[in-house]
Amino acid sequence: MADYDVAIIGGGLNGTSIARDAAGRGLRVILLEQGDLGSGASQASPRLVHGDLAGLERREFFRVRRALRERDVLLRIAPHLVRPVRFVIPAHAEERPPWQLRSLLLLYERLTSRSGLPRSATLDVTHHPVGNALKRPFGTAFEYSDCVVDDSRLVVLTAVDAAARGADIRTGARVTRAERGETWRLVAIDRGYRRVITARALVNATGAWTASVADIVLRVPAPELATVQISQIVVRRLFDCDNVYVFQNPDGRLIFASPYERDFTLIASVSHPFKGDPAVVAIDVREEAYLCDAANRYFREQIAPVDVLRTVSGANSVVVPVRRHMRDGAALLDVRRGKAPLLTIFGGDVTTARRRAERAVSEFTRFYPMTPRWTATAPLPGGEFAWQRFETEVDIARDRWRFLGEAQARRLVAAYGLNVKDILGDAKERGDLGPAFGPELTGAEVRYLMRKEWARFADDILWRRSKLGLTMPQADRDALAAFMAKMD
């Protein structure tokens, strides 16, 4: 008998979503990730959960409608991670005319389910706060509702829920060889130890490594794939409001400028075909200049590549041709007589990941008895409240732990939701939480992340479990690394 029903290689959003779905349907699941959860393409998403307004121009009406439904699902099941935001598109005389933008937004709303989000509006930005950061030529803008997400936290909490339902999540576990018979026999180097694993089915969810894993590790023909690099930049805060600005570029792309970790602005994203090692993907100077120029066309405060504080890049596999079904991704099931099944899943965006995994796991119903689909209604850990109550939950946290400032309480609730109690416990003052690393991170939170969320190194916490690396002094980073080394 095989050790597991399903073995998954890859701990990005596709892999963890499949692990959660399959474990919740009663399958025995193991997930093997060679690095950290969400350390590939998942950490380079533009942090948007949306229907894709530009998709309407490509007449992708059904795809946009499905994405909008998924947006609403994520808002319900992850109200701490997914936050409604008003998006603002300044009308630019040289780009889409105002009547076209207004028509797109009206159609966008017609495709939206009853989510409770505010409807679109036309703004006179000369008398509205969103216009304060814009250059004077912009007198009109269009505002509509969509959502932003903490993408890295989404990956991790999806894995946490999978583990709570019985999945075995292994980070630092690299699969070196796979043999395919009536079951799969995998050889993995799991944190320095050789481990042999057998499974009745295998999922290749390795993102940009999909083709190389298929060829070298699994020794099966790889699907026809292209690799795309996605990049974005982080700069100082360029505006005071909480809106996301949507900028039209002369090449037809839409560029997003979002509030980021209170004091910064995320400008995203630019993509192009990529060749090379996905482990060392990085933005180049032309892409940095492109994103800076896109912002400079609209914002009064100008930026240059020298002002970029951090860049984020990732690569992912997509179907060929590259423009086809980029949002949906693909899941291909390989079934052969006398051979264990192989599912290859790749591409797609954050918004549609849950549905993509649900459909992929359903492919296994011909092999295993399993319970019905369930992930659209079950909240992620800490998300057992309505999204409209987010501010109330922040107030409750501040009332219970009076040493928390508003910004710290908001960060903790946004990251952990109701599970913030598992970190703060009965603490009466900040000193009860152990050593401090910078103004916000405490020993209690670090211990929780190592014990419950597979954090092993300082970067796992500073850049994926949080974004505190943007503000933490080097001395505190060194102290954090030393603290974690003693804990390990």
User: In percent, how much strand structure appears in the residues?
Assistant: 25-35%
Question: Given the C-alpha coordinates, what overall shape results?
Answer: globular
Give the averaged pLDDT, no decimals: 93
Low-confidence stretches: none
DSSP summary, beta strand count: 19
Number of helices: 14
- Determine the N-to-C terminus distance: 34 Å
Radius of gyration using CA atoms only: 22 Å
Descriptive notes:
By secondary structure, the chain is α+β, with helices and mostly antiparallel strands. Helix content is 31%, strand content 26%. The protein has helices at 13-24, 54-57, 61-77, 98-111, 151-164, 210-218, 285-296, 353-362, 390-400, 406-416, 421-424, 443-452, 458-465, 474-487; strands at 4-9, 29-33, 48-49, 82-90, 121-124, 140-149, 168-171, 173-180, 184-190, 193-204, 225-236, 244-248, 254-260, 264-273, 310-319, 330-334, 342-346, 436-437, 441-442. Strands 3, 4, 5, 6, 11, 12, 13, 14 and 15 form a 9-stranded mixed beta sheet that branches. Strands 1, 2, 7, 8, 9, 10, 16 and 17 form an 8-stranded mixed beta sheet that branches. It starts with a strand and ends with a helix.
